[in-house]
Design a protein that fits this description.
With about 200 residues, the protein is α+β, with helices and mostly antiparallel strands. It contains two helices and eleven strands, in the order βββββββββββαα.
């Protein structure tokens, strides 16, 4: 039995807040911002790709494979990072925070579990922090099923990625229930403090 050919497609994708995402449901969780590799970070069911432009459009190509690619094509790209993603639904797609889902194929056709995504980026230094009506940046996402493994950096050469890596990461905000509990504890401490000083 022959293995299915890789599924490939390209589309323009809406960028908002310096990101586009890979998500497996409509439920987005506040992710914080992990700048440690300067390109990609994730929580289960939600992966964030960091863009140079703050909003506008980027060219995104996807290649869905059954096995890891044999070689890394580093010559045509500025940044390449391989990252493990997890999907609970098996319905992970390229998405935008503020836009419609682009016309790109399902990234996780083998169902729920862990996958590897090799994120390639170029052009992030063309209009950093800008608004792009015509896509100045290109991304290639190669995805295949794989067990979780450490992140692998294949290439890091753009200035924008270096700036992100130099910044401290921002943790995700606490879930609403925890935030409410912390607020109650803070108010109690403030009341006690006022009693002691009055």
């Amino acid at each position: 039995m022959t293995e299915p050919a890789p599924i490939t497609a390209s589309s323009s994708v809406r960028v908002d807040h310096h990101t586009f995402e890979l998500t497996d449901s409509d439920n987005r969780t506040p992710t914080g911002f992990d700048t440690s590799n300067g390109l990609v970070f994730s929580l289960p069911g939600q992966t964030v790709i960091c863009t140079g432009i703050s909003m506008g459009w980027a060219n995104v190509s996807v290649q869905v494979c059954w096995h890891p690619p044999e070689q890394v094509d580093a010559n045509a790209w500025d940044e390449i990072v391989e990252h493990t993603v997890e999907t609970a639904t098996g319905l992970m797609r390229v998405t935008s925070v503020m836009g419609d889902v682009p016309d790109l194929p399902l990234l996780t056709p083998q169902g729920p579990g862990t996958y590897r995504v090799r994120v390639h980026a170029r052009g992030r230094d063309i209009a950093p922090d800008g608004v792009a009506f015509e896509p100045p940046e290109d991304y290639l996402l190669i995805v295949w099923p794989a067990e979780p493994q450490p992140e692998e950096v294949h290439k890091q050469t753009d200035r924008y990625g270096a700036e992100l890596r130099a910044q401290p990461s921002r943790p995700a905000p606490p879930p609403p229930e925890r935030a409410a509990e912390e607020d109650i504890r803070r108010r109690k401490r403030e009341r006690l403090q006022r009693r002691r000083t009055s």
